[in-house]
Amino acid sequence: MLAAHLPPLAASLFSLIAIASLLLAFVMLGSRWLRHYLYAFAAESWLIGILSAAIGYYGDYPELYLIAILTFLFRGCLLPYLVLRIIRRLHIAREVHVILQASTSLVVGAFAVIFALGVSSRIGAELGLTGTVVVLALTVMLSMKLIGFLMLAVRHEAISQILGLLVLENGIFLGAQILVPGMPLLIEIVILFDLLIVVACFGLLVQYLMTHVGTTSSLELRRLVG
């Protein structure tokens, strides 16, 4: 496993990018302004693109350079642009329908990170990888997945839920880049294009909600039954 035998400089670089990505997920969790969500997601995607290129360099995986470019273009540019178009078209500025306030969401997110750290440390100990970047990668991956699920649970603006799904997938992708960098190129490209389908489908759902219900809150989906 590449992450278990990294030189100190590479391990520090990977750790810095992973931690910065997790902090950007907290920015999304703690804000109620949709543009803030979007900018944080774009920055997070650019960091993952940098991570892919760095892993390709240190691990001698030339195909990861292509993944880095596609990540910059699709995750960091195209997907945010598509979501921004939806926000502008619907004239939505902020999240209105929430179960937890931003401060409470951050506290729950912090507990999610603690839980992820405990699980990752246990896995690292079982595999004899304690003290390596593997534990950090697992922690960040699980934390971002939990934060993505949390955003889906406590936010009811359809745009927020799109970004919650994208954060969840970013966590999986970041962890995969560090833990299994030799994952087949075709699988990674398919994952990138699947995200385009997700955003397109959610865009249609949001427009349908606005047209037939007059709101973009997913709470109103029950009014569309039948």
TrEMBL record:
Query: Does the keyword Transmembrane feature in the UniProt annotation?
Result: yes
* Broad class of the protein's primary localization: membrane
Q: Which domain of life is it from?
A: Bacteria
Q: Which residues cross the membrane?
A: 6-30, 37-58, 64-84, 96-117, 129-150, 162-180, 186-209
What name goes with this protein? Hydrogenase
Membrane protein topology class: Multi-pass membrane protein
Cell location: Cell membrane
Record keywords, A-Z: Cell membrane, Membrane, Transmembrane, Transmembrane helix
Instruction: Please list the coiled coil stretches.
Output: none
A cellular component annotation (GO) from this entry: plasma membrane
